[in-house]
Each structure stands twice: as structure tokens, then as C-alpha cells.
Amino acid sequence: MTDKETQMITEKRVDIQVNGQACEITVPAWRTLLEVLRELGHKEVKCGCEKGDCGACAVLLDGKVVDSCLTLAWNAAGRSVTTVQGLGGPDNAHPLQTAFIEHGSAQCGYCTPGMIMAAKALLDDIPEPSLKDIKRGLSGNLCRCTGYTRIFSAIQAAAETLRQQETTS
Amino acid sequence: MLPPFELLEPHSLDQALKMLATSESVPLAGGTNLLPDLRARGEAGGRFISLAALDQLHGIEHSDSRVLMGARTTLSDILHDPLMPTAAPSLVSMAKVFAGSMVRNAATVAGNICYGSPSADVVPPLLSLDAELTLASAAGERTLSLNDFLLDYKKTARRPDELLISVAWAPPTTATANLFYKLGRRRGDAITVVGVAVTITIENGNCTKARIALGSVAPTVFRAQEAEEALVGGPLTATTIGTAAQAAAQASRPIDDIRASADYRRHAVHMLVRRLLTEAWQTAGSQHD
Amino acid sequence: MNRIESPAAGTANLQLRQVGKPLVRTDSPTKVYGTAVYAGDLTMPGMLCAAVLHSDRASALLRHVDTSRAEALAGVHCVLTAADLPPSQGVMTDMPGQTGGLTKNTKQPILAKDRVRFCGEPIALVAAENAAIAEQALRLIDIEYEDLDGIYDPFDALAPGAPIIFGDDNVVASYKVRKGDIEKGFAEADFIVENTFTTQYQEQAFLEPEAALAWVDEHEVLNIRSSTQVVEHYRAVADAIGLPHNRVRLRAEFVGGGFGGKEVMTIEVWLALLALASRRPVQLVQPRERSFLSHGPRHPFTMTHRTGVSGDGKITALQIKLTSDAGAYAKLSPYILLYATVGATGPYRVDNLHIDSVSAATNNLPACAFRGFGTMQANLACEGQMEEIAKLLGMDSMEVRRRNFIHTGDANVTGQIIRSAVWSDQCATQALATLGERPTDTQTTRIGHGVACYQQSYGRIRWMKDSSEAWVGVEMDGTVIVRSAVTDIGAGQSSALAQITGEILGVPMDQVVVYFGDGAVTPLAGTSTASRALYMSGNATKMAASQVRKNLLSCVAGYFGVKIEQLDMCDSQVFIIDDPQRSIALKDCVKLCAAEGVHRHNLAIFRAPTSEGIDPETGQGEVFPDFTYGAHAAQVAVDIETGEVKVLKSIGAHDVGQAINLRAVEGQVEGSALMGQGFALCEELILKQGRLQTGSLSEYLIPTSEDVPEIKAIVLESRSGLGPFGAKGIGEPVYAPVAASIANAVADAIGVHIFELPITPEKVIKALREKESTK
After folding, report:
1. How confident is the model at residue C255 (pLDDT cuts 50, 70, 90)?
2. For the residues of C7-70, what is the DSSP string, one character each?
């Protein structure tokens, strides 16, 4: 290979915004966003299967929900990542988080961070989702504890809260 | 954990095609099939060309006679396109039951087609719509039908230096019904046990065009052409539909696997083709009336 | 409000302020904000990553294991095989966490030595600088196998002349129950109904794969922080590697789902060995594919019921044969078989009874504990048989059940008198009624309703002499601390202790902090298994809190010059019941106690009822502390052309004794509804010559959000249980009837029973064809 463009680059500096914070990491091409986020200390991004079957590692990438285990870190370069910690915390809880707490939607809690991010993407897309929309929006996020019912009701409640916030603001 | 591999990141289509021509490499789009495969194999090596930056492969254009879909169109893009429910009803039905949100946001139409899996859900709807594919290489472009593109189990007509850049089809007329059904072992995010797409056009009370595309019941997604022929030229009756459904089942060459037996798959093809044809006749027929 | 309380309940005048309310669990916020820490999230300076090499043969001699290439790889710190372990190497897989009682002495090699007995058996351990190097090292370990004949069916294993995998005869365990006069019972029968039911392997599929971190600290104590249901594994680790018990400290982090799969020790002992060998902290997080091989799935069972029944639906005789596939090692198979044996007659009284049960060793994956622990498989057969009896007699199946239900005061299978409430009928009636009207059939769909009852124990086998300790104390500012080594596996185990303590001491739940799951600093609580955590630790905590209350009130009584009985505690105040204006803040009350040298804390131990075992010839004796009863009902739509089954409604109604946290109870019922649906319809570990064919979450299919029916939980409270405030255990019980109710609903829909789980579309079509051909 003589063409300069096809020279192999083994490692590359990648700049990613994580929850509004600029992060910079040098990684090889085969490193996934999941691995990078966890190396950066974002342990709230969970690993359940590493192949897109469970959704525990779901994060928002430029506002779209992705499995971070199926996203190469290089492909996240220059983009913005939101994890469940970026959505809110005890002092600034997102209505989804408040609703998940109030509805008892987390049991073992391991699917919860990914589930909430999928729910966030769903509500961004469909602010007034039907039960059918919710079921479709979460079908890539497995939960083994809850039977999903309290997750559904929390999302409906959060949607209502967000609607009210919309009308009063 | 993924094994080491090379990733080339072209910024333009030309650059990508040049890379494909000069280096032994595989185009990487959404990665939802290729990355799990790599991880399962666990062996270092291989070179991929990321299509992430190729904006010209995005976008869906609609005109009266033609829908042109960029190869990097994702399954989510299909669901978000306001014209798609009429431009490709079966494709929309399919996208709704395709994996989960995250995979729908990543997986592309081209990736699903080029992977060549018999259970590729994107394929039966597009096959039932007589979709055509445009492949580009450094040497130029060529267009061929999706039907001719699918050769065998995970074998397609794409040459190693080619990139699938777009998919096009004629949107169905109002007298056409275009339906899809996916049978899986669970309702959400499942590998297809049997996938069926049908297109039926009814003119003056007669079926003038029939397409039956079947997934997961042969080494590749395929059209049951004998079954299609049994339908064209007259009204669809219980008898013609039954004959076609039978022919579709006979044309299937399924295997036994962890999801279902070959026998069951053949049975399901029979039942689902019959059901979808009956429904298609009713909907297309009522459009016509 | 789906809640029914008994007016005649035992503690009718009890006024509960917190217990029973659907309060926010203490562990909810941290999980929802993403700050909760799981074992795989921990890091330490200098931490190594581990990886495990699992056998890819089911039955073979290990001719040669060569680790030299792996050891030579840069970044590899140690590679361990059986040759590096003490000759007696092995880890006890007997009922974990027990301090007394009988043991089965079931030992399993930590690493395979001369022979592998199942596909997935661990052979070598690696610790390396990072996970990528550890993985690469695994590929550099050369193994020479010599394949041996294997056995992959328990009936083949029990046949004369079978190759021996376990003991002298491949029998891992067997039980006999002999009760009444079975010949006479069959002679009195008007009909005899015989059917054989089979169940499949079920995988726990917790979302968090096995994970742990181990290191040797500055006191030469081996520390392990793990995702486990059992803190007391520190003893088994110590015994396995030859350390004194006080040199191993095990802490259980939040567990991302257990369901029994993290009951028997999984990866802790491997990490202990690596940490000792490398003198570095070592972490292992099993990739999903290896998680499938690192714990035992649910046992497949074959269950034959031959039932004699009178024309009016009364069971006159019952002969049951149970066979389970234990896989290559015993693990908990003997106990699981015992649970199945005791659960084999469901919630029914059978006076003339023979049960013969056996668990056989094969070269399949060793099966182990999974929510329900044998009872739910046995119950499936029992409840399917009820439907078949009803069909033969032309009776309503609920009517057949009513004629045979066990009642309080009756003797169960093993002759144990049931002392708590048995509300099977109420639960089943409520659940069925809640299903409502049937939608009408269409040309291609048939609607079915099904119900199933059950009897499931809570608490450990009596001869294990179970106990649990808890410590409760009040700080000088009036806040409260609970210490209990209970593991928090997602059902609200620690939160319930806060709620109970808050109730007793009259403080809001958020004023209580629960330290849990630390084998070194929290009093040992036993395990979060066997639906015992709330029963045992709830009682211990209540006892400790009650003693603290007594101490505090005695000081206040002196202060006000009243009797203790005249005082109550609420909202962090102590007040005189008849004169609530006279009150003292809890923090001031604590100061009074401190000044007088009165204990503001207490360590309590709760001990479960015990027995000395069962008669081996008759199976008679007291096996469990008590049982939970209830029912599940399902409405299904079956597509008779494709065989697809869609669950439309799924209703659980259970007498939980007393809900501690109503929302948590409902959450258990809802979660079990979907897990049971998975078992009934789509979950199946498929093994081919011992090799797993469905070892990922795209091949092993648990229900998704798209599979969720309308789910309802109906909570009944008899307050008759042995737990705190009359609670019964519910974690497993609520799961026990689900699959049976769905199987029965499918049978109702298509008019033919499918005796083999899971009920796949394919089996539905086959059953319909057979029905058609016998017409």
C-alpha cells in the first residue's frame, strides 16, 4: 500500500463531550465507547452482553440512543455523550428519574441506567407515547426483575410531568 | 472486547471507493452485525472502512415514480420518514419489529442487505417491492435488482471493491397492498424464524402483480416465483391463495436450528403467505373499489 | 387498591405507620441516578484483570495442559491450573452459608484436573495487566484432550451399564415418600389419570454477569468484593485455599440480579487464588457467554403423575415419579430435589401417596439454584394434572382443586402440620375473577384462561438450623443505623430492614441507614436465598429494634413518671399516648439513655424452627418452617395457524402474610409474571451433546418489553406468617404458579394439553395436528 490514505493508524486521539465535560482519550480503533466511558470513570454505563442484546450500556450520542458496546470510540469523536448521570442527580433530577424512583421501577438496578436513556430518547421523539410506543421504544433494553410494568408507568408519569413543565414555562 | 483491527476513515465517497479498490477491506456501517461477529471470532486482523462520515449516503428522496434511499439510511430513519408508510408499508412494519431502539439507530439498510443473512429483515420487504441496488466502485456504478444481488448464504453479488450506495424502488400504487409479518420466538428483538413480505396489485378485480418474499427459510431471502405466478391474471380466491401458499412452502428450503424445525418453518410459510395474501386481496381490492 | 386484609387476622389491633405502605425503597435513588456501585465497577490501584479458560469438551481426559506460551506473554502475571492448587483442591458446593445441620459434602474441583465432565468446566485462570492481555493469554494455553463417551440424558445415566460420572451409580440424590395405603387408594378410585410433564433448562439471565474483586490487605486478610447472594462464602473460600476463616473478608455489593444463580459460589474462589498468587488486586467480570457457564441453570425435570380420583373429584391415591438432570456435579441438586419432592402435590392434601424422586448425573451443565428451587417444576406437573382430572370428570378445575385443597391444620406431603393461613381458594378465585370476560375467538385465534395454585416454602430446611443476626442502634442525633450482612439482590432486602426499624423506633425511613453485606463488620444474616431474607433478617432486625425501643422507652418512662405501655414513638418523637403534647425528641431521649448508661443499640439473633430430618423410608418429618400459598391466572390468545401464544393478562394473587413494602411486593409479583412467562413460552437452554447452543442473550430469549401482557398483583394479608408482623416469604412463591397458569391457559384455548415446556409455536401446531388426527 503506497496510498497515504490507507496507512494504518493504530491509535488516535479522540475528543468526546461526556455529560457536558470535554474528555480526551487516545485509543485504538477497536476500543468501544462502552470501554472508553468506563475507563473515564463513567461506571454508570453498565455492561451486560457486549453485543447489543441487552441495552444496559445505552447512552445518548448527539441525542440519539445507542448501544455504547456497538459504537466504536473513534466514531464518537467530536460528538456529545449523555449518560444517566448527565441526565440529572439528586439536586436536579430529571422527571424520568423522579418517576422511576417514585414508581419503584428499579429493582436490582443494573438495567436502569440504560433503560432511562432509552426512555429519554423515546420521550424526545414521542412526547406523548402510547403504551405501544413505550413497549417498542424499550424492546432493546432487557430487564429481568420488574416485568417492565413499573418502567412503563414511570415513563407515562414522566411524560405527563414534562408536558406540564412545557405548558407552564 | 473486540480484537484488534484496522479502521480506515474516508471523508468522501471517492476516497472510500479508492480505499476499497486498493486495500483488502470490508465496509463498516452500523456495525450491529460485524462487531458482534468480530468479537465472537476473537482473532486479530481485518481491515474495515468506516462509512460514518459519508454524508452523501444519507437521506431518502421521494418522487411519484421512485423512492431513493441512501445506503446509510438506518432502520430508525425509515420509521421517522413521514412518507414511508405509503412508499413502503412493509418496510415500515418491518422496522417496527426490528431489534430495539439502539440497534435501529445504528443498523443500516445497506448493512443488513450486504451481510447476506437469510434472516435479514430488511430484505423481504425490499424484495417484495422489486428494489434495485446501486453499487459503486472506483471504476464506476452499476445497478442490479436486489433479487439478482442475493446469491447464497451470506453471499451476495457485491464485489470486494464495491460499495452499496443506494436502494430504489417504485412506490406501490393505491391498488397495491404491501404487507410484512415477522414470526419470532418472542415479540421484541428476536431473530426471525419466518419472515414474509407480499405485494399484490389488483386492477379491475384481477391480480396484475404478485410478489412473495420469504426470509429465514432458505440459504438466502428469496422470492417464491411459482407462487407469485399462480396468483397473476385473475381474482385471488381461496383456491388460488391456497395454491400459492402451498407453492411458497414447497419452494422453501429451511433448516432445523435452535429456533425451529424445517417442518415447522414450512408450515408457517404456508399459513403466513395464505394470511398475508388474503389480507392483501382485501385491502388492495377495497382500494380499487 | 388490590389489597385484601383479613378482619380475623392474628394481629388485628396492630397499627402500622410505615410497614405495609408503598414507600420509596432506600436503594432506589442511587440506582436511578447511576451512582450505585456494583462489583464490576470497583477499581483499585495496580488492579489486574482475570480471565477463565473453560473446557470446550463435555467429557474428556485432560492429557496435557501447557501454559508456558501464556505465561511468556508480556503483561501476564500468573496462570493457574489444577497443578498449582493443593492436592485436595475443591470447593464445597453444599448449601451455602450454613452454620449447622446436615451436609451432603458435595465438593467440586476448583479447576478440572485430569478430566473434564462438562462443556464449560474451568481449566485455567489468568491474571494480566489488562483484559485484552488476559484474553490473549487464554488463547495461548494449549490443551490436549482425549474424548470420552459422555451421557447427556438422566435416564441413560441411570440405565444399567452406563458410564459412571458420579458416585457408584450416577445417583446424585433420591427421596421416597410413603404415606397412607396407595393400593387401597387406587382401588377406591373411579378413574386413574396418568401424565408425564417435562421442563427445560432455564437460565437466570440476570443483567449483571458474575463480577468480583479480590486482594490481600495490609493485615494479610484476603478481601473479596463480589456480586453474590451469600456473604458466608468467605468460609468456603478459606476452607478451599487453606486460610483461617478470620483471614477472608467477603463483601457483597449491590447484586445486579441473582435469582439463585449467585447462591452457590461462582468466581470468588478463582479470584482468591489469583490475588494470593499475584499479590495484586485482581478483578474478574465474566463476559456474558462465560456467565452462562459460571453458575447452574434450573434443572430439567421429568415428572409422572398417576392419580386415582373419585367421581366427585377427590384424589384417592397419587403416585409420583420425579427425575432431574443434575449435570456433571452435585451442587445443590439434592436439596432442589427435596424441594421438588415436598412440592410435588402442590397445595393439596393427599393421604395415599408414593413419591420416588431421583437426580442423576450427566455430562450436561451442572444445574443449580434458581428461584423456585425445584418446587416450581413440581408444581407445574401438579397443576397440569388438576386440569386433566377436571377434563376427564367434566368438572370445573377450580372445583376439583377446592375438593382437595390442604387447609390449616392438615398434614402436608411429609406429615408436617400446616399452621399458617392457607388462602389458596381466595387467591385463585380473586385472580380468575380479575381476568374478567374472555374476548371472543376469531377465525384464527383461540382465547384461553388458566389458573394455578401452589405451595412453596420460605426459609431454610429445618435441619440446617437457620439463624440470622442484626444490630440496630440510635445515634446521638436520633438517626438510626442497622447492621446486617444480608445481601441486597434487588428485591429491596436492605430497604425492608430500614422500613421495619423505622416502624419500631418511630423514625422516618430516610433517617435509617442500613449497612449490609459485609462479612467482617455486619452481623451475619445468612443468605438472600430460599425466600428467607425478609423472614429471617426482618425478624432479627425487628427483635433488635424492639429491644432498643424498650431501652429508650424505659428511660423516658422514668423521665415522665409513666409506664412504658403509656408511651409510643413516631416522627422521631417519644410521646404519651393519652397526652401527646407531652413528648420528647428522640435525640433528647438518646441523651437520657447515654447519661444513664443504657444501651442505645442491640444485637439480636433470630432462630428459625428446627427439626432433625426426615425418615428416609417414608419421607415423613418437618422439612420447612412454613409455606406461602396463592395463585396466578393467565389469559392467552393462541394463533392456531402459526402456533404463536400471546399472553394477554397475567394476574398474581398471593397471601403474603403482611406486606412490608407494598410496592416492593407488587414488584416481585410483576417480575415473576414475566419471568414465568419466559419459562412457559420462550426460554430454553439448548444443549447438544452437552454443548450449549444458546449461550447469548440473542439465542437465549428472555421476555422483552414487547412481550409484556397486562400484569396485576393482588396482595392478600393473613398476617399468619412467621416473618416480621406476620409476613411470609414471597420471592420464590410468587413465581411458583406462573408457568403452570400459562400452560393451563394454552390447554384451555386449544383443547389439548402440552406436557412439555417451553410451549413453542411448533409444539402448539404439533399438538393441534395430533388432536386433529385422533378425532
Report:
1. very high
2. TT-TTTT---SSTTS-PPPTTHHHHHHT---BGGG---TT-EEEEEEE-S-SSEEEEEEE-HHH
CA nearest C646 in B: which residue? B187
ipTM summary value: 0.97
Binding partners of B (≥3 Cβ pairs within 8 A): A, C
Give every strand in the sheet of B192-203, ordered side by side: B176-184, B192-203, B206-215, B222-223
| Contact call for C34 and A84, based on CB within 8 A | yes
Distance (Å) from the C-alpha of residue B4 to the closest C-alpha of chain A?
A: 6
Residue of chain B nearest C684, judged by CA positions: B258
Contact: A135, C257; criterion CB under 8 Å? no
- The arithmetic mean of pLDDT across residues C2-20, rounded, is 60
Q: Compute CA distances C492 → C252, C495, C625, whole Å.
A: 14, 5, 22
The dihedral built from the CA positions of residue C458, C461, C462 and C464, taken in this order, carries a sign that is negative
Nearest CA in chain A to C696: A49
Domain A87-168, what architecture? Orthogonal Bundle (1.10)
**Which residues of chain A are within 8 Å of residue B2 when distances are taken between CB atoms?**
30-32
By three-state DSSP, how is residue C170 classified?
coil
Calpha distance C277→A168 (Å, rounded): 63
Q: How many CB pairs under 8 A join B and C?
A: 61
Statement: C467-607 belongs to CATH 3.40.50.2000: no
> Using CB atoms, which chains have 3+ pairs under 8 A with C?
A, B
pLDDT tens for C712-723 read 999 999 999 999
- pLDDT tens string B94-121: 999 999 999 999 999 999 999 999 999 9
The whole-angstrom separation of Cα A14 and Cα C619 is: 67
Say whether domain C301-461+613-773 belongs to CATH 3.40.50.11480.
no
Q: How confident is the model at residue C9 (pLDDT cuts 50, 70, 90)?
A: very low
Q: Do C642 and B183 touch (CB under 8 A)?
A: yes
In CATH terms, A4-86 corresponds, of 3.10.150.10, 3.10.20.30, 3.40.50.150, 3.40.50.2000, to 3.10.20.30
Minimum distance, in Å, between the CA of residue B91 and any CA atom of chain C: 19
Q: pLDDT above 90 covers what percent of chain B?
A: 95
The mean per-residue pLDDT over the stretch A89-104 comes to: 98
Interchain proximity B22–A35, CB inside 8 Å: no
**Do C705 and A139 count as a contact with CB atoms less than 8 A apart?**
yes
pLDDT digits (tens, 9 = 90+) for B189-232: 999 999 999 999 999 999 999 999 999 999 999 999 999 999 99
pLDDT at C266: 81
Q: Is the pLDDT of residue C1 over 50?
A: no
pLDDT per residue as tens digits for the range B39-74: 999 988 899 999 999 988 999 999 999 999 999 999
Question: What is the DSSP code (8-state) at residue C218?
Answer: T
Q: Which of C642, C704, C760 lies closest to B189 in CB terms?
A: C704
Q: What CA–CA distance (Å, rounded) separates B51 from B165? A: 11
Same domain, residue pair B94 and B152: yes
Residue of A81, A83, A149 to mutate, interface with C, max C Cβ within 10 Å:
A149
Choosing among A6, A27, A47, A132, which should be mutated to test the B contact, i.e. which has the most B CBs within 10 A? A6
CATH superfamily for domain C39-148+209-255+262-294: Aldehyde oxidase/xanthine dehydrogenase, a/b hammerhead (3.90.1170.50)
